[in-house]
Amino acid sequence: MMFTKRQGLIIWFRHMKNLRKLKRLGHLIYASKKKKYALIYVDQDELEDVKQQAENYNFVKRVDISFRPEVEMEFEHRQKPIKRQGELESFPRTS
């Protein structure tokens, strides 16, 4: 089974009433009424076309591309945890 590569678009808009037009561009995940933005997932091969199409709407302020695919999700090389017990013993005790 082959999965298509998807990427998120954050679309900042002026008012909620045109949200239906944004739903046609891709898979709408979330829309914030207070902060006036929507998160939409689209195929990576259609990303630039959908971004250009969204920017052409007059109610759209700005379109940002999500950095999620570029973020490394492997956490094996993280630092080792600090030994808390050893640190506590090095401090002088107060009675």
TrEMBL record:
InterPro entries registered for this protein in UniProt: DUF2129
Main location group: cytoplasm
Swiss-Prot/TrEMBL keywords: Cytoplasm
GO cellular component, one term: cytoplasm
The keyword Cytoplasm is annotated on this UniProt entry: yes
Keyword Cytoplasm: yes
Domain of life: Bacteria
Localization per record: Cytoplasm
Family membership: Belongs to the UPF0298 family.
Descriptive protein name: UPF0298 protein FPQ13_01965
Species, as recorded: Allobacillus salarius
